[in-house]
Amino acid sequence: MGKYVKKTNRRRQEDRELSVRAELHDPPDYQKLTELLIRLSLRQSRTSQEQPSTERRASPTEVTTSS
Fold first, then answer.
1. Distance between CA atoms of residues 39 and 44, nearest Å
2. Residue 30 belongs to what H/E stretch?
3. Exposure pattern of 36-55 as b/e (b: 16+ CB <10 Å)?
4. Which pLDDT score is estimated for 67?
5. How far is the CA of 51 from the CAs of 19, 20, 28, 41, 62, in angstroms?
6. Sign of the alpha-carbon dihedral angle for 20, 24, 25, 28
7. What is the full per-residue pLDDT of the chain (67 aa) written as tens digits?
8. 3-class DSSP state for residue 38?
9. Measured between alpha carbons, how far is residue 16 from residues 9, 10, 12, 13, 48 in Å?
């Protein structure tokens, strides 16, 4: 195995200067987001209704325990 050679073109962590810059964005369009959420919910409810009843998951109230 070769001898370790330190890379001299890198700065030490203590010598680095970091800066943080804020990026301003337009506020979200809540009307569009609401419409999208409603559409996705309707699509999901339609696909869950189309599944056969054998694949339907039991709700917590339907689960019974046998003693």
1. 9
2. helix 30-50
3. eeeeeeeeeeeeeeeeeeee
4. 47
5. 53, 50, 35, 16, 19
6. positive
7. 678 777 777 777 778 888 889 999 999 999 999 999 999 999 999 988 887 655 555 555 555 555 4
8. helix
9. 13, 10, 7, 5, 55
- With tokens 């189309």, the residue in question is 50
What value, to the nearest 5°, has the Cα angle with vertex 20 and ends 15 and 24?
Answer: 165
Whose tokens are 């609401």? That residue is: 34
Q: How far are the Cα atoms of 23, 29, 38, 48 from residue 33, in angstroms, in the given order?
A: 22, 6, 9, 23
Taking CA 65 as the corner, what is the angle to CA 61 and CA 67, rounded to the nearest 5 degrees? 155
> Can you tell me the distance from the alpha carbon of 67 to that of 53, in angstroms, rounded to the nearest whole number?
27
Token pair, residue 52, equals 């056969």
How many residues are present in the chain?
67
